Amino acid sequence: MLIYSLFEKERMLDVLRNFTVFAEEGQGTVKKVAYYQQYRAVQKTLDRIRNREQGPADGGVVWHTQGSGKSLTMLFLGLKLRSLRETPTLLVVTDRKTLDRQISATFQQCGSRTRRGRRASRT
Predict the structure, then answer these.
(1) Can you tell me the mean pLDDT for 4-20?
(2) 18, 62, 96, 112: which could form a disulfide with 41 (CB 3.0–4.6 Å)?
(3) What angle (nearest 5°) sits at the alpha carbon of residue 50, between those of residues 64 and 120?
(4) Which helix (H) or strand (E) holds 9?
(5) Which H or E run contains 42?
């Protein structure tokens, strides 16, 4: 059933437009397409953004495990937001330097601009 639903016209066009990227890696260019959980996470995040007037929601936006594609999920969210708004701002907050570098590298490899902020001081 999952494969069948992918081939609905609007969903397929959405995947091609907003959930497919080309990354420069090592030997050349690699095509990357969102996994189902990444597609769903972006859709759920957009739902929360659209419904934010209804009050705060409980819990985090998206919970990921190690190796689940956090960096690409954030990239796909940025691409989708860019298709919905002219100049969106996506603020990604991390708790580790390595994750910060990984997310920045993913965005840059796929041709998106990034700007790193300052590290918060510990008090």
Answers:
(1) 87
(2) 62
(3) 50
(4) helix 9-18
(5) helix 36-50
Beta carbons of 76 and 38 less than 8 angstroms apart:
yes
Contact status, residue 39 vs residue 47, Cβ threshold 8 Å: no
Q: Which of 8, 18, 2 is CA-nearest to residue 73?
A: 18
pLDDT digits (tens, 9 = 90+) for 21-71: 998 888 899 999 999 889 999 998 888 888 876 766 665 566 666 767 888
Could you tell me the pTM of the whole model? 0.75
Tell me the domain boundaries of the chain: 2-53+68-109
What's the 3-state SS for 65-118? CCCCCHHHHHHHHHHHHHHHCCCCCCCCCCCCHHHHHHHHHHHHHCCCCCCCCC
Q: What angle do CA 15, 3, 33 make, to 5 degrees?
A: 35
